[in-house]
Amino acid sequence: MTRLKMVEFPTRLCEVKGELGYFHLWEQWSNVVGTSLLRGRHPVGQVYGIVEFKDGVRRVDPVSIKFCDEENANLCALVKHNEALRKGEANAED
Q1: Helix segments in the chain, DSSP class H
Q2: pLDDT digits (tens, 9 = 90+) for 63-85
Q3: For residues 76 and 35, is the Cβ–Cβ distance under 8 A?
């Protein structure tokens, strides 16, 4: 008997315009635009974040997503550490 293997995608806690939600994944959407003298006939793409909110799931503009989970906290700590190192190097040159 064949068994299906379930694939789980981890979610990330995020905030979108003051509303908390779970980010699921990036969706890449493309469409072929009509012929034009300037651009010919080419696919035009757009990327959305798929975010689950308390009232449903929505496509979200990526610039509206602010991650607020442990992974983002680690990134912020690394950036702060890197800035401190750079300040230390600048002071050492004086």
Answers
A1: 70-93
A2: 999 999 999 999 999 999 999 99
A3: no
Length of the chain counted residue by residue: 94
d(CA 18, CA 20): 7
Q: Report DSSP letters for the chain, one per residue.
A: ---PPP-----EEEEETTEEEEEEEEEEEEEEPPP-TTT-S-EEEEEEEEEEETTEEEEE-GGGEEE-SHHHHHHHHHHHHHHHHHHHHHHHH-
φ and ψ at residue 71, rounded to 5 degrees: -60, -40
Report whether pLDDT(94) > 60. no
Q: How far apart are CA 24 and CA 65, in angstroms?
A: 12
Cα Rg of the chain (Å, integer): 21
Residue of 44, 10, 46 lying closest to 28 (CA atoms): 46
- Give which of 15, 42, 17, 16 is closest to 31, Cα–Cα: 42
